[in-house]
Amino acid sequence: MEKNSKAVGVNVHYLGDESTPARTCVVCVVGGERSLVAHLSTANCYTSEHLKRPENWALVEKAKYFYIAGFFLIVFPDSIQLVAEHAASNNKLFMMNLSAPFICESFRMHMI
To answer: Which of the 8 DSSP states describes residue 61?
Structure first.
C-alpha cells in the first residue's frame, strides 16, 4: 500500500508493525448502498509517539485541514486530541467522520 500510494504522489508516514498483519476491509455494495466490515489489526497498535516524531508532527504543522476517521476514537483518542488542539489553536479546519452509529453512541460524552 505504501509503495502504491507514493507512486501516485501521496506522502504517507505509516506506523509499521512487523508483528501485526495489515488491516483488512470487506465492502458490500447493493444498489446505491454500501456497508463495510473492517478488521483494524495494525491500527490498534498506533501510538501518539509516532505522531509526535518530528518528521510526522511537521506534517501536522504544515497542514491546513485535518480529516480523521471516526474509528480512530477506539484506538487512540489522545492522538485525535493532539491534532484537534493544534487545529483549534492555529485556526485550522478539523473534521471527523461520525457516520458509523457506534461512534456517536459510544463516544457521545467525549465529544461534547
So the answer is: H
pTM (whole model) above 0.90: no
The answer to whether the beta carbons of residues 44 and 76 sit under 8 Å apart is no
Across the chain, where does the E strand assignment appear?
Answer: 24-30, 33-39, 65-69, 93-97
Measured between alpha carbons, how far is 45 from 53 in angstroms, rounded to an integer?
16
Q: At which residue does the C-alpha cell 510526522 appear?
A: 56
pLDDT tens digits along 13-71? 777 766 766 666 778 888 888 777 766 666 667 778 889 999 999 999 999 999 988 77
Q: Identify the helix (H) or strand (E) that includes residue 67.
A: strand 65-69
Q: What's the CA gap between 60 and 89, in Å, rounded?
A: 13
Pair 22, 1: CB distance under 8 Å? yes
3-state secondary structure of 15: coil
Chain-centroid distance, C-alpha 62: 17
